What does this fold into?
Amino acid sequence: MATSTVLVPPRHYLNDGYGIASWLLTRDHKRIALLYLASVTLFFFVGGAMAVLIRLDLATPAGDLVTDETYNKLFTMHGVMMVFFFLIPAIPSVLGNFLVPIMIGAKDLAFPKLNLFSWYIYVVGGLFTLYALVTGGVDTGWTFYTPFSTVSSTTNVVPTALGIFITGFSSILTGLNFIVTIHRMRAPGMTWFRMPLFLWSTYATSLIAVLGTPVIAITVLLVAAERLFHFGFFDPRLGGDPVLFQHLFWFYSHPAVYIMVLPAMGVVSELVAAGCRKPVFGYSFVAFASLAIAVLGFLVWGHHMFVAGESVYSALIFSILSFLVAIPSAVKVFNWTATMYKGAVSWETPMLYAYGFIGLFTIGGLTGLFLAAVGLDVHVTDTYFIVAHFHYIMVGGTIMGYLGSSSAISGCHAGTTRIRPSFRC
It folds into this structure.
Protein backbone atom coordinates (compact mmCIF):
# COMPACT_ATOMS: atom_id res chain seq x y z
CA MET A 1 0.00 0.00 0.00
CA ALA A 2 1.48 3.31 -1.10
CA THR A 3 1.83 6.03 1.46
CA SER A 4 1.58 9.70 0.66
CA THR A 5 4.00 12.22 2.07
CA VAL A 6 2.55 15.38 3.53
CA LEU A 7 4.84 18.34 2.95
CA VAL A 8 4.86 20.72 5.88
CA PRO A 9 5.76 24.28 4.85
CA PRO A 10 8.77 25.69 6.65
CA ARG A 11 8.03 28.02 9.53
CA HIS A 12 8.54 31.69 8.84
CA TYR A 13 7.30 35.01 10.11
CA LEU A 14 3.94 34.78 8.32
CA ASN A 15 2.87 31.32 9.49
CA ASP A 16 4.49 31.26 12.94
CA GLY A 17 1.17 31.60 14.73
CA TYR A 18 -2.09 33.01 13.42
CA GLY A 19 -3.81 34.42 16.50
CA ILE A 20 -3.94 38.09 17.36
CA ALA A 21 -1.80 37.47 20.44
CA SER A 22 0.93 35.93 18.29
CA TRP A 23 1.24 39.28 16.51
CA LEU A 24 0.73 41.65 19.44
CA LEU A 25 3.28 39.80 21.61
CA THR A 26 5.77 38.93 18.88
CA ARG A 27 9.47 39.68 19.12
CA ASP A 28 10.16 38.80 15.48
CA HIS A 29 11.61 41.86 13.75
CA LYS A 30 9.73 41.08 10.53
CA ARG A 31 6.37 40.89 12.29
CA ILE A 32 7.07 44.10 14.17
CA ALA A 33 7.91 45.70 10.82
CA LEU A 34 4.48 44.65 9.54
CA LEU A 35 2.83 46.07 12.67
CA TYR A 36 4.54 49.36 11.92
CA LEU A 37 3.47 49.05 8.29
CA ALA A 38 -0.19 48.79 9.27
CA SER A 39 0.13 51.68 11.71
CA VAL A 40 1.96 54.14 9.48
CA THR A 41 -0.38 53.29 6.59
CA LEU A 42 -3.35 54.29 8.77
CA PHE A 43 -1.77 57.64 9.59
CA PHE A 44 -0.77 58.11 5.95
CA PHE A 45 -4.39 57.79 4.85
CA VAL A 46 -5.64 60.06 7.65
CA GLY A 47 -3.08 62.73 6.77
CA GLY A 48 -3.75 62.21 3.07
CA ALA A 49 -7.48 62.68 3.54
CA MET A 50 -6.80 66.05 5.13
CA ALA A 51 -4.52 66.98 2.23
CA VAL A 52 -7.36 66.20 -0.19
CA LEU A 53 -9.73 68.44 1.77
CA ILE A 54 -7.15 71.23 1.76
CA ARG A 55 -6.73 71.01 -2.00
CA LEU A 56 -10.48 70.88 -2.58
CA ASP A 57 -10.92 74.00 -0.46
CA LEU A 58 -8.25 75.79 -2.47
CA ALA A 59 -9.79 74.72 -5.78
CA THR A 60 -11.95 77.86 -5.76
CA PRO A 61 -10.71 81.42 -5.16
CA ALA A 62 -13.15 81.85 -2.28
CA GLY A 63 -12.03 78.69 -0.52
CA ASP A 64 -15.62 77.93 0.38
CA LEU A 65 -15.52 74.21 1.19
CA VAL A 66 -14.61 74.67 4.86
CA THR A 67 -14.40 77.59 7.26
CA ASP A 68 -11.14 79.41 7.89
CA GLU A 69 -10.88 77.86 11.35
CA THR A 70 -11.41 74.36 9.96
CA TYR A 71 -8.84 75.01 7.24
CA ASN A 72 -6.24 75.90 9.88
CA LYS A 73 -7.05 72.68 11.73
CA LEU A 74 -6.78 70.61 8.55
CA PHE A 75 -3.47 72.25 7.71
CA THR A 76 -2.10 71.59 11.21
CA MET A 77 -3.28 68.02 11.61
CA HIS A 78 -2.13 67.13 8.08
CA GLY A 79 1.37 68.28 8.97
CA VAL A 80 1.39 66.55 12.37
CA MET A 81 0.11 63.25 11.01
CA MET A 82 2.40 63.17 8.00
CA VAL A 83 5.60 64.38 9.65
CA PHE A 84 5.54 62.75 13.09
CA PHE A 85 3.49 59.63 12.37
CA PHE A 86 4.31 58.71 8.77
CA LEU A 87 7.39 60.30 7.23
CA ILE A 88 9.70 59.97 10.24
CA PRO A 89 8.88 56.35 11.18
CA ALA A 90 7.94 54.94 7.75
CA ILE A 91 11.25 53.72 6.32
CA PRO A 92 13.30 53.22 9.53
CA SER A 93 10.56 51.47 11.48
CA VAL A 94 9.12 49.40 8.63
CA LEU A 95 12.00 48.69 6.28
CA GLY A 96 14.72 49.14 8.88
CA ASN A 97 13.12 46.61 11.20
CA PHE A 98 12.58 44.20 8.34
CA LEU A 99 15.95 44.49 6.61
CA VAL A 100 18.68 45.52 9.05
CA PRO A 101 19.12 42.10 10.74
CA ILE A 102 18.92 40.34 7.38
CA MET A 103 21.50 42.61 5.78
CA ILE A 104 24.06 42.13 8.56
CA GLY A 105 23.43 38.39 9.00
CA ALA A 106 21.80 38.57 12.44
CA LYS A 107 18.78 36.66 13.68
CA ASP A 108 17.08 39.74 15.07
CA LEU A 109 17.75 43.21 16.42
CA ALA A 110 19.83 43.60 19.56
CA PHE A 111 16.79 44.28 21.79
CA PRO A 112 13.70 42.45 20.44
CA LYS A 113 11.48 43.28 23.45
CA LEU A 114 12.47 46.93 23.26
CA ASN A 115 11.62 46.84 19.57
CA LEU A 116 8.07 45.68 20.29
CA PHE A 117 7.77 48.19 23.15
CA SER A 118 8.72 51.02 20.79
CA TRP A 119 5.79 50.06 18.54
CA TYR A 120 3.39 50.20 21.49
CA ILE A 121 4.78 53.63 22.41
CA TYR A 122 4.21 54.77 18.83
CA VAL A 123 0.60 53.54 18.93
CA VAL A 124 -0.10 55.25 22.28
CA GLY A 125 1.29 58.55 20.95
CA GLY A 126 -0.79 58.16 17.82
CA LEU A 127 -3.95 57.56 19.87
CA PHE A 128 -3.37 60.79 21.80
CA THR A 129 -3.09 62.66 18.52
CA LEU A 130 -6.14 60.96 17.02
CA TYR A 131 -8.05 61.91 20.18
CA ALA A 132 -7.05 65.53 19.59
CA LEU A 133 -8.26 65.20 16.00
CA VAL A 134 -11.70 63.74 16.70
CA THR A 135 -12.40 66.12 19.60
CA GLY A 136 -11.87 69.29 17.60
CA GLY A 137 -8.33 69.31 16.25
CA VAL A 138 -5.60 71.89 16.72
CA ASP A 139 -5.03 75.08 14.71
CA THR A 140 -1.52 76.25 15.59
CA GLY A 141 0.23 74.95 12.49
CA TRP A 142 2.38 71.83 12.77
CA THR A 143 5.25 74.00 14.05
CA PHE A 144 3.31 75.03 17.24
CA TYR A 145 4.78 78.54 17.22
CA THR A 146 4.52 80.42 20.48
CA PRO A 147 2.90 82.44 21.97
CA PHE A 148 -0.10 81.45 19.86
CA SER A 149 0.16 77.77 20.87
CA THR A 150 0.70 78.56 24.56
CA VAL A 151 -1.68 81.49 25.08
CA SER A 152 -4.10 82.27 22.26
CA SER A 153 -5.21 78.98 20.71
CA THR A 154 -8.41 77.49 22.10
CA THR A 155 -7.91 74.08 20.45
CA ASN A 156 -6.42 70.75 21.58
CA VAL A 157 -2.77 71.77 21.83
CA VAL A 158 -1.94 69.71 24.93
CA PRO A 159 -3.17 66.28 23.71
CA THR A 160 -1.36 66.80 20.40
CA ALA A 161 1.83 67.86 22.16
CA LEU A 162 1.62 64.82 24.45
CA GLY A 163 1.12 62.56 21.44
CA ILE A 164 4.27 63.93 19.80
CA PHE A 165 6.16 63.72 23.12
CA ILE A 166 5.25 60.06 23.62
CA THR A 167 5.99 59.08 20.02
CA GLY A 168 9.43 60.66 20.31
CA PHE A 169 10.45 57.86 22.69
CA SER A 170 9.61 55.34 19.97
CA SER A 171 12.05 57.07 17.61
CA ILE A 172 14.76 57.18 20.28
CA LEU A 173 14.42 53.49 21.19
CA THR A 174 14.29 52.35 17.56
CA GLY A 175 17.39 54.40 16.71
CA LEU A 176 19.24 53.03 19.74
CA ASN A 177 18.31 49.49 18.72
CA PHE A 178 19.68 50.00 15.20
CA ILE A 179 22.93 51.58 16.43
CA VAL A 180 23.67 48.70 18.83
CA THR A 181 22.66 46.08 16.26
CA ILE A 182 24.88 47.49 13.51
CA HIS A 183 27.81 47.92 15.88
CA ARG A 184 27.64 44.60 17.72
CA MET A 185 25.78 42.00 15.65
CA ARG A 186 27.34 42.04 12.19
CA ALA A 187 28.20 38.58 10.88
CA PRO A 188 31.91 37.56 10.74
CA GLY A 189 33.45 39.24 7.72
CA MET A 190 30.75 41.91 7.50
CA THR A 191 33.07 44.86 7.95
CA TRP A 192 31.87 48.46 7.84
CA PHE A 193 32.81 48.89 4.20
CA ARG A 194 31.10 45.67 3.15
CA MET A 195 27.76 46.77 4.56
CA PRO A 196 24.96 47.64 2.14
CA LEU A 197 24.54 51.39 1.75
CA PHE A 198 21.04 51.16 3.20
CA LEU A 199 22.68 50.32 6.54
CA TRP A 200 24.89 53.41 6.37
CA SER A 201 21.80 55.56 5.83
CA THR A 202 19.92 53.81 8.63
CA TYR A 203 22.89 54.21 10.96
CA ALA A 204 23.17 57.95 10.21
CA THR A 205 19.41 58.34 10.65
CA SER A 206 19.55 56.56 14.01
CA LEU A 207 22.26 58.93 15.24
CA ILE A 208 20.06 61.92 14.39
CA ALA A 209 17.02 60.33 16.04
CA VAL A 210 18.84 59.51 19.28
CA LEU A 211 20.54 62.91 19.56
CA GLY A 212 17.80 65.17 18.20
CA THR A 213 14.48 63.70 19.29
CA PRO A 214 14.94 64.53 23.02
CA VAL A 215 15.07 68.21 22.02
CA ILE A 216 11.65 68.23 20.35
CA ALA A 217 10.25 66.08 23.15
CA ILE A 218 11.24 68.53 25.85
CA THR A 219 10.18 71.47 23.65
CA VAL A 220 6.58 70.28 23.21
CA LEU A 221 6.54 69.38 26.91
CA LEU A 222 7.50 72.98 27.74
CA VAL A 223 4.68 74.19 25.47
CA ALA A 224 2.19 72.00 27.34
CA ALA A 225 3.58 73.09 30.73
CA GLU A 226 3.37 76.79 29.85
CA ARG A 227 -0.14 76.38 28.50
CA LEU A 228 -1.36 74.52 31.61
CA PHE A 229 0.63 76.15 34.39
CA HIS A 230 1.59 79.54 32.87
CA PHE A 231 5.34 79.20 33.23
CA GLY A 232 7.36 81.90 31.50
CA PHE A 233 9.39 79.89 29.00
CA PHE A 234 8.11 81.48 25.79
CA ASP A 235 5.48 84.09 26.79
CA PRO A 236 7.02 87.61 26.65
CA ARG A 237 4.52 88.85 29.26
CA LEU A 238 6.03 86.39 31.76
CA GLY A 239 9.64 87.07 30.81
CA GLY A 240 9.85 84.30 28.21
CA ASP A 241 11.22 84.43 24.68
CA PRO A 242 9.15 83.11 21.75
CA VAL A 243 12.26 83.01 19.55
CA LEU A 244 13.75 80.50 22.02
CA PHE A 245 10.97 78.13 20.97
CA GLN A 246 11.95 78.52 17.32
CA HIS A 247 15.57 77.69 18.14
CA LEU A 248 14.56 74.57 20.07
CA PHE A 249 11.98 73.48 17.50
CA TRP A 250 14.17 73.88 14.44
CA PHE A 251 17.27 72.45 16.12
CA TYR A 252 15.39 69.16 15.91
CA SER A 253 13.07 69.74 12.99
CA HIS A 254 15.70 70.45 10.38
CA PRO A 255 17.69 67.30 11.22
CA ALA A 256 14.28 65.58 11.20
CA VAL A 257 14.14 66.29 7.46
CA TYR A 258 17.17 64.02 7.15
CA ILE A 259 15.54 61.41 9.42
CA MET A 260 12.85 61.34 6.74
CA VAL A 261 15.00 61.42 3.59
CA LEU A 262 18.27 59.65 4.53
CA PRO A 263 16.67 56.19 4.69
CA ALA A 264 15.10 56.82 1.29
CA MET A 265 18.57 57.66 -0.04
CA GLY A 266 19.77 54.31 1.26
CA VAL A 267 16.86 52.60 -0.51
CA VAL A 268 17.71 54.34 -3.79
CA SER A 269 21.35 53.26 -3.47
CA GLU A 270 20.21 49.64 -3.21
CA LEU A 271 17.67 49.94 -6.04
CA VAL A 272 20.13 51.60 -8.40
CA ALA A 273 22.80 48.97 -7.72
CA ALA A 274 20.32 46.11 -8.20
CA GLY A 275 18.51 47.69 -11.15
CA CYS A 276 21.74 48.47 -13.03
CA ARG A 277 23.48 45.20 -12.08
CA LYS A 278 26.64 46.93 -10.89
CA PRO A 279 27.95 48.26 -7.57
CA VAL A 280 27.20 51.87 -6.68
CA PHE A 281 29.91 54.13 -8.07
CA GLY A 282 32.08 55.54 -5.27
CA TYR A 283 30.73 53.38 -2.44
CA SER A 284 32.84 55.01 0.27
CA PHE A 285 31.85 58.53 -0.83
CA VAL A 286 28.15 57.65 -0.69
CA ALA A 287 28.61 56.02 2.73
CA PHE A 288 30.46 58.98 4.23
CA ALA A 289 27.98 61.38 2.60
CA SER A 290 25.29 59.87 4.85
CA LEU A 291 27.35 60.62 7.95
CA ALA A 292 28.22 64.10 6.66
CA ILE A 293 24.52 64.88 6.18
CA ALA A 294 23.79 63.68 9.72
CA VAL A 295 26.49 65.92 11.22
CA LEU A 296 25.91 69.02 9.11
CA GLY A 297 22.14 68.70 9.52
CA PHE A 298 22.49 69.76 13.16
CA LEU A 299 24.28 72.98 12.20
CA VAL A 300 21.81 74.66 9.83
CA TRP A 301 18.62 75.21 11.86
CA GLY A 302 19.12 79.01 11.78
CA HIS A 303 18.13 79.27 8.12
CA HIS A 304 14.52 78.79 9.25
CA MET A 305 14.87 82.00 11.26
CA PHE A 306 16.34 84.49 8.79
CA VAL A 307 13.21 86.65 9.28
CA ALA A 308 13.05 86.21 13.08
CA GLY A 309 15.48 88.97 14.00
CA GLU A 310 18.64 86.94 13.54
CA SER A 311 21.86 88.95 13.39
CA VAL A 312 23.54 89.49 10.03
CA TYR A 313 26.60 87.53 11.16
CA SER A 314 24.57 84.55 12.38
CA ALA A 315 22.58 84.57 9.16
CA LEU A 316 25.83 84.58 7.14
CA ILE A 317 27.19 81.55 9.01
CA PHE A 318 23.93 79.61 8.74
CA SER A 319 23.72 80.49 5.04
CA ILE A 320 27.20 79.10 4.35
CA LEU A 321 26.47 75.94 6.34
CA SER A 322 23.17 75.48 4.51
CA PHE A 323 24.98 75.60 1.17
CA LEU A 324 27.56 73.18 2.57
CA VAL A 325 25.01 70.53 3.58
CA ALA A 326 23.87 70.34 -0.04
CA ILE A 327 27.26 68.95 -1.10
CA PRO A 328 26.94 65.40 0.32
CA SER A 329 23.41 65.19 -1.07
CA ALA A 330 24.73 66.17 -4.49
CA VAL A 331 27.50 63.57 -4.15
CA LYS A 332 24.84 60.89 -3.79
CA VAL A 333 22.87 62.08 -6.83
CA PHE A 334 25.98 62.25 -9.03
CA ASN A 335 27.14 58.81 -7.88
CA TRP A 336 23.74 57.25 -8.60
CA THR A 337 23.83 58.81 -12.05
CA ALA A 338 27.36 57.52 -12.63
CA THR A 339 26.23 54.06 -11.56
CA MET A 340 23.49 54.07 -14.18
CA TYR A 341 25.92 55.15 -16.89
CA LYS A 342 26.52 52.15 -19.19
CA GLY A 343 24.70 49.87 -16.76
CA ALA A 344 22.10 47.25 -17.62
CA VAL A 345 19.39 49.69 -16.59
CA SER A 346 16.06 48.16 -15.62
CA TRP A 347 12.65 49.72 -16.24
CA GLU A 348 10.80 47.64 -13.68
CA THR A 349 8.61 49.30 -11.06
CA PRO A 350 11.20 49.64 -8.23
CA MET A 351 13.64 51.38 -10.56
CA LEU A 352 10.92 53.73 -11.81
CA TYR A 353 10.51 54.92 -8.24
CA ALA A 354 14.29 55.34 -8.01
CA TYR A 355 14.29 57.47 -11.17
CA GLY A 356 11.41 59.50 -9.73
CA PHE A 357 13.34 60.01 -6.51
CA ILE A 358 16.46 61.26 -8.29
CA GLY A 359 14.57 63.74 -10.46
CA LEU A 360 12.19 65.10 -7.85
CA PHE A 361 14.74 65.17 -5.04
CA THR A 362 17.09 67.12 -7.30
CA ILE A 363 14.39 69.76 -7.81
CA GLY A 364 13.83 69.87 -4.05
CA GLY A 365 17.56 70.20 -3.41
CA LEU A 366 18.01 72.99 -5.94
CA THR A 367 15.11 74.97 -4.48
CA GLY A 368 16.78 74.47 -1.10
CA LEU A 369 19.78 76.42 -2.38
CA PHE A 370 17.49 79.40 -2.98
CA LEU A 371 16.42 79.21 0.66
CA ALA A 372 20.03 79.10 1.86
CA ALA A 373 20.61 82.52 0.28
CA VAL A 374 19.52 85.14 2.83
CA GLY A 375 18.55 87.75 0.25
CA LEU A 376 16.13 85.35 -1.45
CA ASP A 377 14.91 83.57 1.66
CA VAL A 378 13.51 86.70 3.29
CA HIS A 379 11.23 87.20 0.28
CA VAL A 380 9.94 83.62 -0.13
CA THR A 381 9.60 82.72 3.57
CA ASP A 382 5.98 81.77 4.41
CA THR A 383 5.06 81.47 0.72
CA TYR A 384 4.14 78.48 -1.40
CA PHE A 385 7.78 78.31 -2.51
CA ILE A 386 8.53 76.81 0.92
CA VAL A 387 5.59 74.41 0.67
CA ALA A 388 6.72 73.27 -2.77
CA HIS A 389 10.35 72.81 -1.71
CA PHE A 390 9.33 70.77 1.32
CA HIS A 391 6.97 68.52 -0.61
CA TYR A 392 9.50 67.90 -3.41
CA ILE A 393 11.78 66.51 -0.71
CA MET A 394 9.14 64.61 1.25
CA VAL A 395 6.90 63.24 -1.52
CA GLY A 396 9.48 63.20 -4.29
CA GLY A 397 12.10 61.84 -1.90
CA THR A 398 10.85 59.91 1.11
CA ILE A 399 7.63 58.51 -0.35
CA MET A 400 9.30 57.54 -3.64
CA GLY A 401 11.94 55.63 -1.70
CA TYR A 402 9.32 54.03 0.53
CA LEU A 403 7.19 52.84 -2.39
CA GLY A 404 10.24 51.74 -4.38
CA SER A 405 11.52 49.53 -1.59
CA SER A 406 8.06 48.16 -0.87
CA SER A 407 7.56 47.20 -4.52
CA ALA A 408 11.01 45.58 -4.63
CA ILE A 409 10.31 43.46 -1.53
CA SER A 410 6.81 42.43 -2.62
CA GLY A 411 7.99 41.71 -6.18
CA CYS A 412 10.92 39.71 -4.84
CA HIS A 413 8.60 37.55 -2.74
CA ALA A 414 6.15 37.09 -5.62
CA GLY A 415 8.89 36.42 -8.16
CA THR A 416 7.69 39.23 -10.43
CA THR A 417 10.88 41.28 -10.49
CA ARG A 418 14.55 40.58 -11.03
CA ILE A 419 15.50 43.60 -8.93
CA ARG A 420 16.77 41.94 -5.78
CA PRO A 421 18.62 44.35 -3.47
CA SER A 422 21.15 43.06 -0.97
CA PHE A 423 18.81 41.01 1.20
CA ARG A 424 17.32 37.53 1.00
CA CYS A 425 13.73 37.34 -0.20
Notes: Residues 68-104 form the longest helix (37 residues). The mean pLDDT is 92. Residues 260-420 form one domain.
